[in-house]
Design brief:
Blueprint: E1 16-20, H1 27-34, E2 46-47, E3 50-51, H2 57-66, E4 68-71, H3 75-78, H4 85-95, H5 100-113, H6 129-141, E5 147-151, H7 159-174, E6 179-184, H8 187-190, E7 195-200, E8 203-214, E9 220-228, H9 240-246, E10 252-256, E11 261-265
Parallel strand pairs: 1-6, 1-7, 4-5, 5-6
Antiparallel strand pairs: 2-3, 7-8, 8-9, 10-11
């Protein structure tokens, strides 16, 4: 089973982007590879100077401890039920051998940065779902990772709470300097980032780039443009609605125009056969 095939993705340092796709499209597999949980079996996968295909077991532990932070959808997998928010954020710092005074300062700063400083002495059962996820973001950021990965971080939350969690991710990106990759099926979440990458059938199929423009009357508005993604082999996925509208299937006709490539359905011309009818009777 090849979960990912023909997937090309380049993320710039300091970027914040969303990866969207239907269930089974391969987005969670991609996140597991980037997090160092599942080693890839082929292709190329690099995060900074780290080659995810060639890491030893010891290097993989170091990579997961210091280079990436992971926030899972289920809050129960992010926190420890018998530890307070401050204690669970302190845990990865303790494991990394950070001194007590530095740990205390770091924990307080992280909780305050994402708006859950009041939860420092609370255990998960004493916090709301949104507070738990924001504490989970602090845990993932404890050792100052270069990359923060979030797998459906708002999947179990209401709209207002989702907004608070997303603001915490934005804080991690803009104020704490982490490159943030969010996997989500929530269109509202993906609409808040400048770049959204769609995955379909294990391949990157399209990207939406957003930019803010100012109109003639001085009002700012967001312009979103969708692009098809061409992989290294020159393959492009044509959106389903386009294929259905033009009845594209199996083969298509390509034509190189002056400034674009046209794609047309492969329709056989309606030609009468140039053959005399068989007049033989029995």
């Amino acid at each position: 089973m090849q979960a990912l095939q023909g997937l090309d993705l380049l993320v710039a340092e300091g970027e914040m982007l969303a990866i969207v796709g239907a269930s089974g499209s391969g987005k969670s597999t991609l996140l597991s590879i980037l997090a160092g949980v599942d080693p890839p079996t082929a292709g190329r996968a690099r995060v900074g100077e780290w080659d995810l295909l060639g890491m030893t077991r010891r290097e993989r532990v170091r990579y997961r401890r210091h280079v990436v932070g992971l926030v899972r959808q289920q809050t129960a997998r992010n926190l420890v039920p018998y530890l307070t928010a401050a204690q669970v954020v302190d845990l990865p710092l303790t494991i990394a051998g950070v001194g007590r005074r530095e740990r205390r300062t770091r924990v307080a700063a992280l909780l305050q940065a994402v708006g859950v400083g009041h939860c420092a002495g609370r255990r998960p059962a004493e916090m709301s779902g949104g507070e738990q996820q924001r504490v989970a973001i602090c845990v993932a950021l404890a050792n100052r990772p270069r990359v923060l990965l979030a797998d459906e971080p708002t999947g179990e939350l209401d709209t207002e709470t989702s907004r608070e969690v997303f603001e915490a991710l934005r804080t991690a990106n803009r104020e704490l300097g982490a490159t943030v990759v969010v996997v989500t099926h929530d269109a509202d979440v993906s609409g808040h980032v400048e770049r959204t990458v769609a995955i379909r059938d294990g391949r990157t199929s399209s990207e939406v780039l957003r930019r803010t423009a100012t109109s003639a009357d001085g009002d700012d508005h967001v312009i979103a443009e969708e692009y098809a993604v061409m992989d290294r082999a020159g393959r492009v996925q044509v959106p389903r609605e386009y294929r259905e509208a033009l009845e594209l299937s199996r083969r298509v006709r390509l034509a190189l125009e002056a400034d674009h490539v046209s794609v047309k359905p492969d329709v056989e011309p309606d030609v009468e056969p140039d053959v005399e009818p068989d007049r033989t009777t029995s």
